[in-house]
Please model this.
Amino acid sequence: KTKATCDELMKRSDACNKTLKKECEDIEQVTELKDFMQELPTFVTEIDQDIRTVLQSYELLDEYKFEYAKDDTKRRWNVYSIPLKISQGLDYAHNSIKSDKERFEQEMLEAQEEFASEIQSLTTVINGFSK
Model:
């Protein structure tokens, strides 16, 4: 049961980190990522309790001197590191949002300049008709 719970926790953690590290293609995706980040404390609270339960199970197995397979030991430490991985994913997402906002702002400014140039060109053409 502990093994299955570990695997399930890792899947949930990996899905969370995948969302946090997903590249944003437009401002809507940035907003979706921000919304996801706002829901993250609830997710962390839920997963934290599950992590504590799993680690308690491992401690119980340790008391009875259970001999683990190499994969079991790896699972234990992977579960133990979930909060750190989520924290690192969150830091990555914050930096990503900042750079994406700057990139989208620059793209918007370039589009505005292009639009202003087109308006100026059209104004010149229209003024040419009145002559």
Observations:
- The helical segments are 2-20, 27-63, 70-80, 82-129.
